């Protein structure tokens, strides 16, 4: 859109920020039930393991839709499509807030998952269409920054809203944010040409590369493990460690603040030390989760906070790190490589919630955390076999 201009109009930056808010809203929608899992379980008289399916099934559907949408929506105008998808997301959250039973809640979540998957199928190339090449990195960081922030802040925010009011308030707040995003995109995002649709063999070409397979494998292992634990972080803190009330909300916000710290660290170091940064982050996550697994009601709240900081900062680095590694290595295959990454990421979220509920069927929350800590350590193996990207 502005490839030949060095000065980017302020309206374009507002559009970029609106897209960043949209990614925050989309990912917060996906993860919102994690922060209110106990309340949802009580409200619909379901077990926490069953209630966790509103996260896992959502993620699986979003992953499938993301891959299909890369081909289905290749020729659709970006602006109109993004406005439509944010509208669907807003409606799905409103319906979820007023769901009279668990089936209605699941139905609303599935509608949101379809919008989620289609959104991620097209958002990857929008930043490059909006700004000159020298600003693509900044624009992409703002747009995808919403993912990291939502992953670590969205859950404590929904938890705080639910504790202050009731759980449906969290969904209504997300719906309002989706409406704001939709209006901002409609006003400020210029009309963008649809990129050339992918050929049917593009995904197969990416999957032939051993380097991508290793990154995808590490991503699948780490993200699955993280969400197996993170889906049940609220019950772990409130039940196993017996943290309640305002202290629980503060600890969840501490986790989120650590994620923002992780993003700052990533921005400073990732171009020079990507491999080392991801490796240290995975190790830190493993230590943090293991420490929580071994904690009980006698543990100091400061120790619990420190372990959450280590875990939160580590996962934020991993989120951005693997995505950056894919983009650095993909070159002209960036779109299909990113599409596969997004699908694996969302499938891993769903797998994590599902595997977490399955493990809880045979062990305790602490036992689940020990399994996760081991899996996070194992995800280091494919990372250590890779070379630091040179570009």
TrEMBL record:
One Pfam match: MFS_1
Membrane topology annotation: Multi-pass membrane protein
What subcellular locations does the record give? Cell membrane
Q: Which keywords are on file for this protein?
A: Cell membrane, Membrane, Transmembrane, Transmembrane helix
Q: Which residues form the Major facilitator superfamily (MFS) profile domain?
A: 8-391
Q: What is its main location?
A: membrane
Protein name from the UniProt record: MFS transporter
- State the species of origin: Alcaligenes aquatilis
């Amino acid at each position: 859109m502005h490839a030949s201009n060095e000065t980017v109009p302020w309206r374009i930056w507002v559009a970029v920020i609106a897209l960043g808010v949209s990614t925050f809203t989309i990912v917060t929608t996906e993860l919102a039930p994690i922060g209110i899992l106990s309340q949802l379980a009580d409200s619909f008289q379901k077990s926490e393991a069953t209630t966790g399916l509103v996260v896992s099934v959502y993620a699986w559907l979003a992953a499938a839709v993301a891959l299909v949408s890369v081909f289905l929506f290749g020729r659709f105008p970006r602006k109109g499509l993004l406005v439509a998808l944010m509208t669907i997301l807003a409606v799905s959250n409103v319906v979820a807030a007023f769901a009279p039973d668990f089936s209605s809640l699941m139905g609303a979540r599935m509608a949101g998952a379809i919008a989620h998957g289609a959104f991620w199928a097209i958002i990857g190339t929008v930043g490059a269409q909006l700004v000159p090449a020298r600003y693509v990195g900044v624009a992409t960081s703002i747009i995808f920054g919403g993912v990291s922030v939502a992953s670590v802040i969205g859950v404590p925010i929904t938890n705080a809203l639910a504790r202050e009011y009731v759980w449906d308030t969290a969904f209504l707040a997300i719906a309002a944010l989706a409406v704001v995003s939709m209006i901002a995109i409609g006003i400020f995002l210029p009309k963008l040409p649809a990129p050339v649709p992918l050929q049917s063999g593009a995904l197969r070409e990416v999957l032939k590369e051993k380097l991508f397979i290793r990154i995808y494998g590490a991503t699948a292992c780490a993200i699955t493990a993280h969400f197996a634990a993170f889906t049940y972080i609220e019950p772990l803190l409130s039940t196993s460690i017996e943290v309640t009330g305002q202290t629980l909300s503060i600890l969840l916000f501490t986790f989120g603040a650590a994620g923002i710290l992780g993003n700052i660290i990533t921005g400073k170091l990732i171009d020079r030390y990507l491999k080392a940064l991801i490796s240290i982050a995975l190790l830190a996550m493993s230590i943090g989760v293991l420490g929580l697994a071994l904690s009980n009601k006698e543990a100091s709240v400061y120790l619990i906070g420190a372990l959450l900081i280590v875990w939160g900062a580590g996962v934020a680095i991993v989120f951005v790190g693997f995505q950056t590694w894919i983009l650095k290595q993909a070159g002209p295959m960036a779109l299909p490589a990113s599409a596969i990454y997004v699908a694996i990421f969302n499938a891993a979220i769903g797998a994590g919630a599902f595997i977490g509920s399955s493990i809880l069927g045979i062990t305790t929350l602490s036992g689940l955390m020990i399994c996760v800590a081991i899996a996070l350590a194992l995800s280091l193996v494919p990372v250590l076999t890779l070379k630091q990207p040179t570009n």
